[in-house]
Every structure is written in C-alpha cells, then in structure tokens.
Amino acid sequence: MPHVPLRRLLTFASLPFLLLALLIPASAANAAVAPDAAVAVPAAVRSCSSATPVASRPTLNYKDTGSCVKLMQQLLLNKAYKIGASAPTGNYLSGTKAAVLLFQKNNRLVADAVVGPKTWAVLASSKTPKFTSPVYLTFDDCPSGSTSTAARTASNTTLKTARDLGMHLRLYVTGDCLKAKRFDVAYARQMGHTVCSHTNTHPELTKLTLSQIKAELQIPGLTTNCARPPYGAVNTTVRTAFSQLGYRLDLWNVDTNDWRGKTQTEVTNYVIANARPGDVVLMHMNHKAYNSSALKAIKAGLSKKSVNIK
Ligand SMILES: [Zn+2]
Q1: Are residues 121 and 10 in the same domain?
Q2: Confidence grade of residue 111 (pLDDT, cut at 50, 70, 90)
Q3: Gap from CA of 37 to ligand 1 centroid (Å)
Q4: N or C, which end of the chain is more exposed by having fewer CB within 10 Å?
C-alpha cells in the first residue's frame, strides 16, 4: 500500500468513505496491541487460507474483517458452533463473537473474544473437540410423593419426558427406594436410561468394612455394573469393593446443591449456566429438578449454548 501523508489524505475527504476505509484499516489500532509480534499486519490486509500456518495467522478482534476472519468462522462451523450465519462472512460481528466466547469457555481458554495464538491453535486442532462431549444429567436417591404409587407414577412421567427430549438420564437408586416400590427400574431402562446402585441404605461407605461395603452396593433385584457412593465418600477400601464387584465408580463434577432448598428455577438456571461439555451434573430425584418442566428448561437452555445432553 502506498504511503499517503495525512494532510494529502484529508484533501480526499469528499471521496466515498470506502476509500478511507481501504487506506486506514479499522483494525490497525487493534493490531498494535496484539500480543503476537509475528502478526503486525492488520487482519483486514493479511490473507488467510486453511494452508496458512497457525503461527502466521493474525490475532483477530471483534469487528475485524477479511479472509482470516472467514477462516476462523469456517473452523468454528466445522466444530458445530453457530456464528450467526450459515456460511463464513469475513465479518467478525456479534454472532461470531458469541461463538468465539463459547468456544473459548468450552476449551478453558481465556474467554475474551480475542482470537490469538492459543485460540487459533485449539481451533486448528483436529482432535475431537470437547464441544462434542455431552453433559450427563444424573439423579440420586428416590422419587418423592405422598404414596409410593404417586412417587412411581410421577417418576415414570419424568422418565418418559426425558426419553422424548432425547435425554439419557443416569439414575442412582437406593435399595430402600426399590423396596418401597417408589421407582420402576424396568420402565426406566425401557425409556433408555441407565440405572445404577446408590447402596441399599445410603451409608457413608468409608466408615464400613470391605464386606459391609460390598453388601451395601449390591441391591437385591437390581442387576447393574455401576454405582455411586453416597456423599461421594471414597477411600481405598471403597475402591477395592467396587473393583471386586466389577462396578464402575461414578462421581460428578457439577453439584447443583438442589437439596439445599433451591427452587426449580434456581436449579435449572445453575445447570444451564455451569454445565460444560463432558460435565456430570448431580441432582436428586426427591428435589426440585426431577420433573418434566425442569428437564425441558435445561434442554432448552443448554441447546441455546449449543451444548448437548446425553
Ligand atoms: Zn444420595
């Protein structure tokens, strides 16, 4: 680009704005603060293709334009992110910004909407993105209800709604719950859900002997290969019991604390705000989110964030 003294440039003030835009790329100021010295040329001037080495791609900021923005948008689309358009536009606007922020969050990058070397590297990675991992919704304990029939009927409605929403719930029931006929294992499995042991009487397993732990984990009438220890209490003896029984030890990493008197909305909003791909969300059948409307709200909220539920 020819060097044009500012004073001469001002005499062109009557020319269409387009000319000014060509001479002074909008992103010039942004490029000056870009952390990567190798990419001093503004995004709008530099050209990119999928063959451009990751290290040579310019840092992109909101409102940048050009083929490098187009490439970034294509990479997001490839990973099933919604950029606010069905095809790359070359304009880094709000739809793309939301996708970049979500991508950065999902990949535990600094979520600042600035596509620098680290974000480019993860975008370019051919590894299965974390994004495709689903969120696992899990419910412990036992459905509530004034009678066992009421509890079981309400539970079955929830299980069917979940199936209709394409959700595969993981349910950790106690032997006491099954004894009281408050949960229908056969129906849950018929609806495609996974039913695991949550012990017979819900004790803290770390306080028991190996043989006591094994007796607690095995629920009469429940054939399964997975269990969740109450309170997540685990020690070496508990792990030995699991491995001797051939049970998978299932814990969680997102705790809704639904049992602390939270409302349905508080629980569902917490899940929507905090569940990221691959997370296992802990809830309880006898608290506020084990019903059709809560599951619908979670599904809708996570879908909006392009997060799948397993
Ligand atoms: Zn429990």
Answers
A1: yes
A2: confident
A3: 54
A4: N
The predicted model gives 25-43 an average pLDDT of 47
User: Which residue's structure tokens are 């079955």?
Assistant: 156
Edge-to-edge strand order for the sheet containing 194-197? 248-249, 226-227, 194-197, 170-173, 136-141, 280-284, 254-255
Tens-digit pLDDT profile for residues 233-270 = 999 999 999 999 999 999 999 999 999 999 999 999 99
> Do 45 and 89 have their domain in common?
yes
Give CA separation, 199 vs 170, 219, 230, 239, 244, in Å: 15, 7, 8, 14, 15
**181 & 106 share domain:** no
- Do 89 and 137 reside in the same domain of the chain? no
At 64, which CATH number? 1.10.101.10
CATH of the domain at 270: 3.20.20.370
Residue-level pLDDT at 265:
97
Domain encompassing residue 109: 6-130
Q: Compute the distance from residue 301 Cα to the ligand 1 centre, in Å.
A: 26
Q: What distance in angstroms lies between residue 206's CA and the mean position of ligand 1's atoms?
A: 14
Residue 126 pLDDT class (50, 70, 90 cuts): low
Q: Report the domain count for the chain.
A: 2
Q: Are residues 186 and 93 in the same domain?
A: no
Instruction: Give me ligand 1 centre to Cα 201, in Å.
Output: 10
Output the CA 177–ligand 1 centroid distance in Å. 11
**Average pLDDT of the chain to the nearest whole number:** 85
Of 130, 159, 186, at which residue does a domain stop?
130
- Distance of CA 293 from the midpoint of ligand 1 (Å): 23
Q: Phi and psi of 150, rounded to 5°? A: -60, -45
Residue 83 and residue 95: Cα distance in Å, rounded?
A: 5
